[in-house]
Design a protein that fits this description.
The chain is mostly helical. The protein has three domains: 126 residues, no CATH class; 136 residues, no CATH class; 46 residues, no CATH class. 74% of the residues lie in helices and 7% in strands. The strands form four sheets. It has a two-stranded antiparallel ribbon with strand order 1-8. The longest helix has 66 residues.
């Protein structure tokens, strides 16, 4: 019973995806690729990658699940970028080893993560601002919340990477070879004076059993540089979206003023070309990434569209089943005719034999 309910829930989410054809096409292509990689990983015995593929398929359903549960509208562009981000991080990064093949892959994804998380944080507070009659938050406050939300998610992710490295001995916080180190731990006088070692060319590590491991090129930094780099690019992505979100809200606030038409006309005349481009860019980013609430009419309209898609699918299945039944009946009739044709010569031959036998007896 639970399996049927889960399967029906997944089918319902996929039907809802079809309301946005562009994002659904991207989802369909990525889903096929993930399934093929999962099959390949299964036959090669790499079950960890199979688990990552299954996790990716579940995460693909996240945006439409949020739309249904929270009664919101996530723009198609935002959905497509989320799908691509999941595929780039889990499939291309982890399974296809893009983190190792392309050194800037991790940096690019962390920058995009900062941007997307700021968009999510901004949308959460924006929805609260739109739905509540008693709350009217300023554009600066919304932009600050978006920035803080994005940075918090970035820090939590680094905690997760550190935990996985320490508990399961992974290398999610990638190591770097450095040629200079500075540490008070190496100070022989214990005077809290940083002890600096420059121009390191090789590090030799000895273990308890006497074996040695040589690190050529310098000293191995254990993840701290990678962590700081990730947080820095996350900061850049968060600032970019927060700035454009602030510009969008200020423009929206001005348009909703008492003398909106006159004020906007005068502002547009006085505004520099650079300022106009900033407003247009902010509007474009908001239209592409800002999650908006759905009223009851829009929710009912969306449910009707989903129901229509399901009815069309049932109708198509019924027509296919009817066509299949007709084809089966035709094939049975053809087989009977063929059998009848084959049996006629045999019956004629038997009749000739009986006639010949009768004549010989006479």
């Amino acid at each position: 019973m639970k399996k049927n309910t889960l399967a029906a829930g997944i089918r319902d989410l996929r039907d809802r995806m079809k309301l946005d054809q562009k994002s659904y096409r991207v989802y369909s292509i990525l889903r096929v690729l993930v399934i093929l990689i999962a099959v390949r990983s299964f036959f090669t015995g790499n079950f960890e990658n199979v688990a990552l593929c299954l996790l990716s398929l579940v995460l693909f359903l996240g945006p439409v699940f949020a739309e249904k549960t929270l009664k919101i509208d996530i723009p198609q562009l935002f959905q497509v970028i989320i799908y691509l981000f999941i595929y780039a991080a889990w499939i291309m990064g982890e399974i296809e080893n893009y983190y190792t093949i392309f050194p800037g892959w991790d940096t690019m994804l962390h920058t995009l993560n900062g941007f997307l998380c700021a968009a999510v944080g901004f949308s959460m507070v924006y929805l609260l601002n739109q739905k509540s009659e008693n709350i009217n938050l300023s554009p600066f406050y919304l932009a600050m919340v978006a920035f803080c939300f994005s940075m918090t998610i970035g820090v939590i992710w680094e905690f997760f990477e550190f935990t996985m490295d320490q508990v399961f001995h992974l290398d999610m916080q990638k190591d770097f070879i450095v040629k200079t180190i500075s540490s008070v731990t190496l100070d022989p006088k214990n005077s809290q004076t940083p002890y600096v070692i420059n121009h390191i060319t090789r590090t030799i590590v000895e273990t308890a059993d006497g074996s040695q491991h040589v690190i050529e090129g310098g000293y191995l930094d254990i993840g701290i540089i990678d962590t700081m780099k990730d947080l820095l690019v996350n900061l850049v992505g968060a600032i970019v979206f927060s700035v454009f979100g602030y510009i969008y809200l200020k423009h929206e606030e001005a348009a909703a003023g008492k003398a909106a038409a006159a004020a906007m006309a005068q502002a547009d005349e006085k505004m520099t070309k650079k300022g106009q481009r900033m407003v247009q860019t902010g509007q474009m980013i908001a239209d592409g990434f800002l999650v908006k609430p759905l009223n009851e009419t829009e929710v009912r309209k969306r449910e009707d569209e989903v129901r229509k898609i399901k009815d069309e699918q049932k109708k198509g299945k019924g027509e296919n089943s009817g066509q299949n039944a007709r084809n089966r009946r035709k094939s049975r009739r053809r087989r009977k005719k063929q059998e009848a044709k084959l049996s006629m010569p045999q019956e004629g031959q038997q009749l000739k034999q009986r006639t010949a036998e009768g004549e010989s007896e006479e």
